[in-house]
Amino acid sequence: MEFSTEICREISLRRHMTVQIPRGITEAIEDFLKTEQAAKMGFNCKTDLITAAVRNLLTQYGYYQRYENK
């Protein structure tokens, strides 16, 4: 069964949300993503980097736990 573009977009919107961050932070993220270090860490886009950063902070403070599939 194929999903239409509209259905795929609707599913994506249910799983994600948009947030605004200060332009200076965005510029720093964009600069970092251009580095070899970012590439080695597997960061290809702002979304990946921001998700990892937020996940790490929440994990550090005990608000997020990863559940590994066993």
Order of helices and strands: HHHH
- Give start-end ranges of low-pLDDT stretches: none
Supply the number of structural domains.
1
Number of H- or I-type helical stretches: 4
Helix percent band? 55-70%
Topology:
Elements: H1 5-15, H2 23-33, H3 36-41, H4 46-60
Structural overview:
The model has no long low-confidence stretch (mean pLDDT 85). The chain is built from four helices and no strands. The protein has helices spanning 5-15, 23-33, 36-41, 46-60. It has one domain. It is mainly α and 70 residues long. 61% of the residues lie in helices and 0% in strands.
Briefly, what is this?
With 70 residues, the protein is an all-alpha fold. The protein has one domain (20-70).
What labels would you give this structure?
mainly alpha, globular
